[in-house]
């Protein structure tokens, strides 16, 4: 339970220390009697992933403070709240906490609660048999040492596993709760420039943890060490322990004083990555893990990953005989203009570490089978699936008998189409379920059986997409005996629903639910035929439902409503959403979404704002809360204020993204106007990023719109082409050659297309007033693009304004800034589309000397 925002806000205003800020609380609802217990000042809580009956609650540290009053209810409206008194409040006695705090092990059934003092970290094993606890030192008790304990939840016996360390990380417990592993550093001086961590292991029967591996262990490469940042994990059987290693980096030269230290970035054309990308990756690269395995059968460390084969794909939950790996080493520079790298694919023997190259120059996706016997690969260049057989070391084409595309049929970027992907591998690798646009196919990895359309072609026939719902993240394959649950989506009417598929009974999909709404969040009870799901539309807030799954054809599917997120919505004018179809200037029948006010009157003339990005018609039934906007148009807010909002789909032609936007957006706008209920003189445009670019382009080609608002627009493709996406450090060339900007050629191959599609070169034609948002910390579109657009329009005497939210990135993150832009957007469109008086920030601006003192909202 989060603290009230007003309390946190007040504490920040008063500049309270971190320990004095309002803290989270935890509520425990008992279904048997409806009572709720609240725990104050909770730092975190955990429960066993599969086990039941226990919860561990770690409280915030108490810094030399007297015990406070009994725990208070956070939400005064909760009824039947049990409040702890002085005797049973966790951490009730006066204590000093230096590093640790109280950890309450709470029994959720009949049993006694236990409190552990001075705890810094804790972890349940998956089945809830054991609890690992780390405690800290105390300045008031010099005899206390940092210690790791393993607590048996069945016997309530605690075993000391490890003590006397400087730092310990990466706890792992096997499924049985009897084996523990972690990395720790215990010998280094606290002032040492380099600290070397070691891998430790404990199992029941040992007196304490034993050392398994360090930088001197056989199997760990010379000059490498155990990585302190790795996620240690046991295989499913517990017979393998996987951990990370890394290259030992040279320490910082402390002999050079900081005043004399040179800070310079050296760019070299031979580098895999540009310096900005290297700097963005620096922390990640310093902590990068390279997979190693300790195998109890061989009692040795085997290094699997290295600086040129990474990542590694383990199989059979770590117990597989065949692992796989990929490498783009030496081929990464091309990602700057391609947006991808080709890779080499490897078969890896986890028992020896030996590698066998499977493919070179591979571009696509890989899908290892559950046991590792097969590696399914989709080659984007050939647009085909292949299977590598680890037993025969052979590669064969599969799914060739499927006559429909298994890749994106609607791909409209100048790059190879992505596959629709797979649903899952079958038990014992007897088959793999592959998607086409609509249906699911069973494919034999041995190619002995023809592909079988599990959904019987119903998807393509009815334009309904069938997609498998993953109901159990722990299951690494699908059994022929189980019933598969499917999410369905109708491309024509945008309805969605739930279906089941029984392969054992060889039935076609059984549709349980198909409604004009967005159905999602499907969760099934593990041991019963009961599911939870959510349902929403634009006008109906997200609601939670529960339903029994029919077990016979005579039974019907009846969802029972449980809760609705925003019942207060009924107090507001909301609106409706509908599909609008028209024929674009290209001749294509096109769709968009038309949002109308709740009290819409077709005899009136409404102002209309057109919002665009790429294609959004599939979001017809998505619920949109009217929250302050980070960048995009706040559709329900404007619709509630009497605007019509139109969101057209745009289909792009390579080399002509600007003209494509014109062909679909302008044609769609005019088609709506022809309906008679939109004032053709009161039309606005709003968009962000790619939408911002399209707006900047449109106003150079038409005077149809009375007002435009472009967030983070690209104005000049010739200068943006060589820029940096600072969020990733990537050069922007790939975006123009291969992805969203869709030029499909280099700047020197087709400079005329870069100029034709750049609004900057056509600005003298602009007559539409424009507001630009370009933030000085934008990590996607360089904010100087906004500056180019603003200064050029200003030079030409065009009405233009620019908002630069200092320190904000591509989309606004701070709520105060989101509220601010929401107000300004409303004022701007109300002025030009409703005839309201313009505020001061529009008519006269806000001089720098008034920055932070005057917002300019008034007249």
Overview of the molecule:
Helix 6 (657-673) crosses helix 7 (690-698). The protein is built from 13 helices and 49 strands. Strands 40-41-43-42-44-45-48-49 form an eight-stranded mixed sheet, with helices on both faces. Strands 3-4-6-7-8-9-10 form a seven-stranded antiparallel sheet, with no helix packed on it. The protein has 859 residues and is an alpha+beta fold. The radius of gyration is 31 Å and the shape is globular. The longest helix is centred in the last third of the chain and has 20 residues, at 815-834.
Distinctive features:
13 helices, alpha+beta, 13% helix, 7-stranded antiparallel β-sheet, 859 residues, 8-stranded mixed β-sheet, 49 strands
Can you give me a brief rundown of this structure?
The protein is α+β, with helices and mostly antiparallel strands and 859 residues long. It contains 13 helices and 49 strands.
- As residue ranges, the low-confidence spans are 65-97
Task: Based on Cα principal axes, name the global outline.
Answer: globular
Distance between the termini: 42 Å
Counted beta strands: 49
Cross-sheet strand order for the largest sheet:
40-41-43-42-44-45-48-49
In angstroms, what is the radius of gyration?
31 Å
**How confident is the prediction overall: mean pLDDT?**
91
Proportion of strand residues: 25-35%
Number of helical runs?
13
Give the helix level as a range of percent. 10-25%
Q: Profile the largest sheet.
A: 8 strands, mixed
* Helix and strand composition category: alpha+beta
SSE blueprint and pairings:
Blueprint: H1 5-13, E1 26-29, E2 36-39, E3 42-46, E4 54-59, E5 81-82, E6 101-107, E7 114-124, E8 130-135, E9 147-152, E10 157-163, E11 167-173, E12 179-185, E13 198-203, E14 210-213, E15 224-226, E16 233-234, E17 240-247, H2 275-286, E18 290-295, E19 300-303, E20 312-313, E21 323-327, H3 335-338, E22 343-348, E23 355-362, E24 364-368, E25 374-379, E26 384-389, E27 394-398, E28 422-425, E29 432-435, E30 440-443, E31 452-453, H4 458-462, E32 464-468, E33 483-490, E34 496-502, E35 510-515, E36 518-524, E37 530-536, E38 543-548, E39 560-564, E40 576-583, E41 589-596, E42 606-611, H5 635-640, E43 644-648, H6 657-673, E44 678-688, H7 690-698, E45 707-711, H8 717-720, E46 724-725, E47 730-731, H9 733-737, H10 751-756, E48 770-773, H11 784-795, E49 800-803, H12 815-834, H13 840-843
Parallel strand pairs: 2-5, 42-43, 42-44, 44-45, 45-48, 48-49
Antiparallel strand pairs: 1-2, 3-4, 4-6, 6-7, 7-8, 8-9, 9-10, 11-12, 12-13, 13-14, 15-17, 16-17, 17-18, 18-19, 20-21, 21-22, 22-23, 24-25, 25-26, 26-27, 28-29, 29-30, 30-31, 32-33, 33-34, 34-35, 36-37, 37-38, 38-39, 40-41, 41-43, 46-47
């Amino acid at each position: 339970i989060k603290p009230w925002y007003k309390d946190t806000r007040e504490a920040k205003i008063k500049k309270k220390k971190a320990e004095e800020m309002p803290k989270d609380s935890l509520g425990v609802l008992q279904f048997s009697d409806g009572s709720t217990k609240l725990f104050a000042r909770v730092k975190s809580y955990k429960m066993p992933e599969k086990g039941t009956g226990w919860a561990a609650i770690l409280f915030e540290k108490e810094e030399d403070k007297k015990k406070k009053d009994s725990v208070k209810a956070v939400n005064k409206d909760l009824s039947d709240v049990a409040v702890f008194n002085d005797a049973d409040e966790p951490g009730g006695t006066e204590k000093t906490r230096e590093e640790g705090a109280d950890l309450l092990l709470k029994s959720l059934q009949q049993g006694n609660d236990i409190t552990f003092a001075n705890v810094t970290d804790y972890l349940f094993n998956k089945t809830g048999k054991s609890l690992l606890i780390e405690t800290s030192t105390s300045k008031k008790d010099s005899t206390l040492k940092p210690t790791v304990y393993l607590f048996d939840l069945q016997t309530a016996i605690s075993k000391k596993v490890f003590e006397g360390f400087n730092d310990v990380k990466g706890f792992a417990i096997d499924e049985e709760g009897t084996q523990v592993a972690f990395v720790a550093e215990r010998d280094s001086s606290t002032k040492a420039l380099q600290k070397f961590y070691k891998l430790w292991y404990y199992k029941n029967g040992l007196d304490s943890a034993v050392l398994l591996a360090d930088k001197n262990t056989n199997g760990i490469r010379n000059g490498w060490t155990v990585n302190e940042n790795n996620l240690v994990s046991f295989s499913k059987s517990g017979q393998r322990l996987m951990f990370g290693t890394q290259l030992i980096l040279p320490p910082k030269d402390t002999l050079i004083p900081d005043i004399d230290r040179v800070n310079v970035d050296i760019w070299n054309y031979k580098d895999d990555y540009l310096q900005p990308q290297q700097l963005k990756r620096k922390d990640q690269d310093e902590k990068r893990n390279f997979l190693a395995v300790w195998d109890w059968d061989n009692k040795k460390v085997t290094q699997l990953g290295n600086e040129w084969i990474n990542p590694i794909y383990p199989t059979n939950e770590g117990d597989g005989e065949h692992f796989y790996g990929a490498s783009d080493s030496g081929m990464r520079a091309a990602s700057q203009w391609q947006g991808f790298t080709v890779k080499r694919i490897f078969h890896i023997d986890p028992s020896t570490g030996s590698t066998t190259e499977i493919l070179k120059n591979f571009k696509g996706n890989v899908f290892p089978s559950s046991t590792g016997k097969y590696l399914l690969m989709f080659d984007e260049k050939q647009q085909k699936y292949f299977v590598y057989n680890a037993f025969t070391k052979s590669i064969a084409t599969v799914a060739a008998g499927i006559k429909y595309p298994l890749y994106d049929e609607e791909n409209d970027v100048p790059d190879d189409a992505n596959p629709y992907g797979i649903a899952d591998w079958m038990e014992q690798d007897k088959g793999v379920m592959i998607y086409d646009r609509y249906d699911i196919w069973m494919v034999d990895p041995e190619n002995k059986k023809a592909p079988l359309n599990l959904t019987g072609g119903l998807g393509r026939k009815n334009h309904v997409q069938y997609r498998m719902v993953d109901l159990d993240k722990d299951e690494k394959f699908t059994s022929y005996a189980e019933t598969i649950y499917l999410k369905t989506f109708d491309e024509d009417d945008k309805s969605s629903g739930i279906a089941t598929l029984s392969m054992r009974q060889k039935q076609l999909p059984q549709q349980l639910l198909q409604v004009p709404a967005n159905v999602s969040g499907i969760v099934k009870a593990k041991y019963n035929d009961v599911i939870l799901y959510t349902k929403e539309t634009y006008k109906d807030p997200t609601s939670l439902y529960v339903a029994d799954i029919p077990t016979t054809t005579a039974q019907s599917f009846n969802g029972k409503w449980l809760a609705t997120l925003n019942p207060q919505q009924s107090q507001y004018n909301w609106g409706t959403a509908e599909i609008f179809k028209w024929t674009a200037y290209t001749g294509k029948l096109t769709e968009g979404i038309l949002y109308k006010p709740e009290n819409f009157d077709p005899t009136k003339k409404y102002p209309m704002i057109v919002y665009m990005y790429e294609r959004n018609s599939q979001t017809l039934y998505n619920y949109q809360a009217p929250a302050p906007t980070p960048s995009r148009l706040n559709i329900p807010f404007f619709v509630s204020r009497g605007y019509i909002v139109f969101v057209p789909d745009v289909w792009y032609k390579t080399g002509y993204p600007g003209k494509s936007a014109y062909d679909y957006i302008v044609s769609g706008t005019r088609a709506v106007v022809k309906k008679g209920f939109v004032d053709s003189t009161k039309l606005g445009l709003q968009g962000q990023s790619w939408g911002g670019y399209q707006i900047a382009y449109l106003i150079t080609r038409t005077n149809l719109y009375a007002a435009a608002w472009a967030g983070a627009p690209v104005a000049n493709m010739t200068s943006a082409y060589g820029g940096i996406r600072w969020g990733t450090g990537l050069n922007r060339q790939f975006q123009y050659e291969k992805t969203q900007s869709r030029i499909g050629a280099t700047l020197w191959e087709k400079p005329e297309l870069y100029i034709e599609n750049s609004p900057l070169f056509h600005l003298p034609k602009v007559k539409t007033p424009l507001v630009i948002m370009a933030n000085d910390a934008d990590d996607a579109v360089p904010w100087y693009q906004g500056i180019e657009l603003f200064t050029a329009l200003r030079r030409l005497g065009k009405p233009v304004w620019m908002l630069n939210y200092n320190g904000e990135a591509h989309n606004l993150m701070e709520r105060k800034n989101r509220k601010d832009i929401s107000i300004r957007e409303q004022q701007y469109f109300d002025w030009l589309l409703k005839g309201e008086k313009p505020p001061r920030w529009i008519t006269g601006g806000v001089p720098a000397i008034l920055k932070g003192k005057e917002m300019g909202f008034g007249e």
